[in-house]
Write a structure and sequence with these properties.
The chain is globular and about 45 Å long. The longest helix is centred in the last third of the chain and has 18 residues. The protein contains six helices and seven strands. The chain is of the alpha/beta class. A hairpin with a 4-residue loop joins strand 6 and strand 7.
Length: 206
């Protein structure tokens, strides 16, 4: 499967799920993800680019953003995100887009945000470089992502959920894409971890 067809396959999965994505992920959200998401996304300031905005889960926490531009491969997910943005009163622009080919000028955003997207990327370095390109030199790029487990218990858990995660969400639980962030020229500023180091909230700068 080439990169374009892989992206199309991912988009179709999320289109079929639509607003149901929020239901599927509800348990994980309430247990730890909401806390991690809040702590990271509240740091976003100014004009924000939300990469893989999905159903708009980050919209509850954009307290310091003046406007949010969101891109996603799934048009159905974006429909749900638009409803949330309007309800929250967020100045927004949501469109179908690909993180490996961002249609924005260099330095367009004060903050770029990516949450639980890196595991889906076929060319992560290209994606991270595009995020760096559209971020202002003194801006921030924020990641909330999972990394491979390092304990026996978490490794067994990831192994158990892998088939479902791959089939339903196109998620690759054992993805090491996060480790490639420095290779894209991004400098790590801070990192908070949870779930025995599996979940990572990472603040970087270009």
């Amino acid at each position: 499967m080439n990169m374009k067809s892989a992206s199309e396959a991912s988009a179709k999965k999320y289109d079929r799920m639509g607003a149901g994505y929020d239901t599927v992920t509800k348990i994980a959200d309430k247990s730890v993800l909401d806390r991690m998401r809040r702590g990271l996304v509240e740091k976003a300031q100014g004009r924000v680019l939300d990469v893989g905005v999905g159903t708009g889960k980050n919209f509850d926490y954009y307290e310091h953003a003046t406007s949010v531009v969101g891109i996603d491969l799934s048009s159905k997910s974006l429909e749900t995100a638009r409803e949330k943005a309007r309800h929250k009163g967020i100045t927004h622009e949501l469109r179908v887009g690909d993180v490996t080919n961002l249609e924005f000028a260099d330095g367009s955003f004060d903050t770029v945000v990516m949450c639980l997207v890196a595991c889906n990327l076929d060319d992560p370095i290209k994606a991270f470089r595009e995020m760096r390109r559209v971020c202002k030199k003194d801006g921030y790029i924020l990641f909330l992502e999972h990394t491979p487990p390092t304990t026996v218990a978490m490794n067994m858990l990831f192994g158990a959920v892998y088939p479902i995660a791959r089939l339903a969400l196109n998620c690759r639980p054992f993805s090491k894409n996060v480790s490639l962030i420095p290779d894209a020229g991004l400098r790590e500023v801070t990192r908070e971890t949870a779930a025995q180091g599996v979940l990572n909230a990472i603040v970087t700068q270009p």
